[in-house]
Amino acid sequence: MLEVRGDVVRVGLEASSEVVVEGLVAEGPLALDGATTWMSNGFHSWSQTGALVIGALPTDETLFAALAETGDTEVLRDGTALSWELTVVGGGSRALLVGAIDSARFRPWTQVGRGDAGLMLRAGSGGVDRVSVASGETVWGEPFRVAFGDVEPLLRDHAAALPARASAASAEAGWNSWYELWDGVDEAAVRANAAAARTLLAPRAGTDTLRVVVDDGWQQAWGDWLPNDRFPSGLDGLATDLRADGFEMGVWLAPLLVAEGSDVATAHPDWLVEGASYLHAKNGTMRVLDVTHPDAAAHLRATIERIVGWGYGLLKIDFLFAGTFEGGRVEDVTGMEAYHRALSIIREAAGEDTLLLTVGAPGLASLPYSDSWRVGGDIALEPFGAGWPWIPNQARTLAARWPYCARVLCDADPPILREPLTREEVETGAWVVAFAGGALFLSDDLRALDAARVDWLPAEVVTLSLGGEPALPEDYLPASPPRRLSHAIGDQVSRGGASTHVVPTTWRAPDGTRYALNVTEAEINVEGVPVPPRAVRPLP
Fold first, then answer.
1. 155 and 36: one domain?
2. pTM of the full predicted structure?
3. Each residue of 373-383: pLDDT tens digit?
């Protein structure tokens, strides 16, 4: 059955006998003159996202393989199989937006492609989820908004329809330990970098209060969220001292993952989702906490309460996508139902005044709990260090996910200042952060950084980064989209650092100022303004 209420559509099934439903799909031909391009959204923060040429409708085999992806293969997706949660189709005089406004039980997705009958559209809920339905009961898929019109009004209307937390959080400035110290961070480095950030960043940001975030590496093990011996003062002692010096504190954790050899996994194997795991590239196999187990839920709640009690007013909660994995749980719920359960526990335990930055997280399901959402992938990777290819990747993802960033502070990761990035590349990376409008953090080891590089941050970048609103990509659907999404690792390895990403060129800041972004290797001319390679220039 099909239910239509205004511009919201959902598919339902009334069971005539007991049945297990894995997914619900509505499909049919799409009449959209001139359509050439569609937006393909990845499942969570890091997943490749961007505009594509409309190609052949993928086979069912390809679709189901994409629906079942849970690990790094999904992150490095080429985007052709489906778009999670949201798509925009256009290229002609009008565009079509199809976007889910809930994901309470199923993972929503869309497909656009050309079949024997012409252009086809599918909107689905689930595909690997399993919901038992008794005879006479009705099960509903997730609700989708379906609207035609010009792209900008479609994006703004969809943003307004997304469920989101009524957060009073404002964009913050500070320092995060991850992007040069990695998981070797220690207490001395945090203290020294906090002091350096006050000298180098605070005057530029116009604030005496910076946020210092201790990232991965402080814990005894994933799942055992207690400080290791590189933090002799404990995280509580560190927070006490830095807060007395006028800093606000934040800390990273992956609350839904448990290392196989951790104390928690060893002592409580019944707390873990049966058949669900994530293979971390460096730290090995991780198991998933079953938040439907009462004792595991109590453990999660106590962990969050303890860390907040140490003096940490921001929790950077990472690898959240693992909470959506299907598997054997104490309660018969889908992965998405378990995800909502987990984030509800975390939010309640953290309290309303604690900021939650959700990372590696599906956007739609995270919005009701998040003060800030990591909009894209990492801006540097430990095996490669800093480099240009990650900047276009971030810009492409930020552009595609504009409706989410209009509803929650979007964290586009820090501008990286150190070598080998050139001044133009540093400035362009900073502009991408500014276009997100959600934060301005440094993440180089400031003890080793040439302080003059901090002066490369344009004053306008600082203002926009802390403005709390995203810039709008005016060419949201680029005129010449690719057939497949590229990724930064491929560009770094096989392209020598040159980007193959197709990224919107013109961006409009909330104050109306317009900028041209060039991520290519050749100078371009935008409205009479020459824009060098890997650069941003203001437009008249």
1. yes
2. 0.98
3. 999 999 999 99
